[in-house]
Amino acid sequence: MPTLAQIIERNRTHSEHAYIMLCEMILPDGTTVRLARNTESIAWPNAGSVSGVLAAAGESVSVLCAEAGSIEVALTGEFSGEIALEHDDGAGGNWTEIAAFTGPSGGEYLCLAGRTYRLIVRSLTEGAPHALIAPKGTVWTAFDFLPDDLEESGNVETRGVTVRVGNASQAMYDYMRQLMDWRKLHGPELIQVRLCVVNTGLLDEPEPEAEYWFVDEEISCPPPMQAVEIKLGLENIWDRPVPRRSITRDFCQWDSADDCPHYAVCNHTLTACRVTYTNSINFGGFPTVEQGGVNA
């Protein structure tokens, strides 16, 4: 539901702030890729983040970490020189280097409670990069991507949209190779894709101006491999098996400690569950089903 600030901004005849499209891809192995269709990386929601342009030696952006955890940093824009990520000793004294960057870059780093972290220019002969420090999971990396128009279909196929993501650095292609390797071992689990729109004047709002969820239907990287094309659609609920797991009489299907603490050492039979582990109440099969299966 839109907040009052969002409603006011939408009803202006003109706005001083830009709207930015964001793309979040959640890979089945747990990797999350966050992209912003913008010339600078942004933090959203931006609570606890700090950013600024570094134009001369000695300039910096810094943030105090109140709790231990992780931070993300991002440097956007070409430059020649060196920018360091440092933290202090907690008393405002000595600074310790964590990483040094000589070009547009970023990463995730552990942070200690009560320490100040900063990106500081050691030398700069060309350029004025945009620097960003933000809590983990809130940085959206500046990236070239664009969704096509919605594809219409005259038959029973569902409608979809194709997102073209720039691949000049080969970063997106590496993510897709990672996905394909995972699918070879675990099966064709879908990518969850979120497209949303935020207003740069309301980045402290946790809810986007608009939000749409999709799954991937097809991924390709056609020659000359300058872009990865991801065809998005909606998950087809009619392709889901009902029930979601097989009905077996004498075989327990639990495969994680969340389901059963003995799953790793048990032979998954009702006898072992009942006699060895006295856990038949948690048996992951259906012992009351007649031999030969069930007709639905």
Description:
The protein is mainly β and 296 residues long. It has 3 helices and 17 strands. The strands form 3 sheets. It has a 9-stranded mixed beta sheet. Strands 4-11-6-9 form a 4-stranded antiparallel beta sheet, with no helix packed on it. It has a 4-stranded antiparallel beta sheet with strand order 5-10-7-8, with no helix packed on it.
What brief labels describe this structure?
four-stranded antiparallel sheet; 296 residues; 10% helix; 38% strand; 17 strands
Topology:
Layout: H1 4-10, E1 19-26, E2 32-36, E3 42-43, E4 50-53, E5 60-65, E6 69-76, E7 80-88, E8 95-101, E9 105-111, E10 115-126, E11 130-135, E12 139-142, E13 145-147, E14 161-166, H2 171-186, E15 192-199, E16 210-220, E17 227-233, H3 270-276
Parallel strand pairs: 2-12
Antiparallel strand pairs: 1-2, 1-15, 3-12, 4-11, 5-10, 6-9, 6-11, 7-8, 7-10, 13-14, 14-17, 15-16, 16-17
